[in-house]
Amino acid sequence: MGRRSQPAHTPYDGTATPFTIGLKPLDPGCWLEIDRDYEAYLAEKRRLFDTTPGTVFAEESETRDAQNEVLALVRAELAAGFPAVFPGTRQWEAALAAMEREGDSDAPPLKTASLLVQEDLVLMRKGEAGWRLAAASLCFPSSWTLAEKFGRPLEDIHAAVPGFGRGTRTAGLINRIFDNLKVAQPVERLNWSLQDDNELHKPLSKATRDARREREAAHSADDAPLLRSFIRVERQTLRKLPVSGDILFTIRIFLDPMRILAAHPDRAALARSLAAQLAALNAAQLTYKGLAADRDRLVAALNKLAAT
Known about the structure:
Layout: E1 24-25, H1 38-51, H2 53-56, E2 57-59, H3 64-81, H4 90-103, H5 109-114, E3 120-127, E4 130-137, H6 146-149, H7 154-157, H8 169-180, E5 187-195, H9 206-218, E6 230-240, E7 247-257, H10 258-263, H11 267-280, H12 283-289, H13 295-307
Antiparallel strand pairs: 1-5, 2-4, 3-4, 3-7, 5-6, 6-7
Helix pairs in contact: 11-13
Protein name: DUF3445 domain-containing protein
Pfam family, one: HODM_asu-like
């Protein structure tokens, strides 16, 4: 992964603020993103479905009609949009092959749809307790597990995120956004984190997070790595399904090695901005991102990069 010569998205450039909702309108024609890593992402998804299917897929039985809505949307998007992006390329041939391979499958439609795109697909459904996670194909989580979130309402899903849990102002805003989302106006947001490898599948249970917090508290800055190897960017979209009324939440992961940032023509501005965002994180936010032991050295290294 991470073979792009430039980052696809740079939410650390000052256009987005960590730990805010930061939604903006999404052009429906730019809903899905496919790049040269398309085949590698799909191969990794198939590997995960073969080896650990219970960790990457879950569904409520009453969601099959909504899942079929998602599959129809994905197939239409691929057929209509992407030949113009890369006609005749291996990516398009792989997309066609994937559609044919998955088209006659008896698999859940959401799984089928997920194996056609690089995005993970999550269905949210409104019930008495609010919007809950009712079905998901989640191969590339960023520090969470499907087992802990499945069937839970939004407030519980976001419980570990500083400032987003039950009873916070942000939680109320998110619920209102879901309630008022229009079919004709999908939305998107971006966020970032840092990791020391190029693994897409990055689950992290509450128990693991608690253990990591204890390790970080015991480490000094001297024990921390100087600079993480990869910037992990999440592009998230929300769109309301016209028939079921459910909301489809998509998550697309981009992994950019730090060398791309170092070679970027605007590296000074990007490095300064990333350093500033790191410096502004509070203790809870740093712990959530796994950067409590590393922040000061990361900030110093990024400021040095900006000055080079």
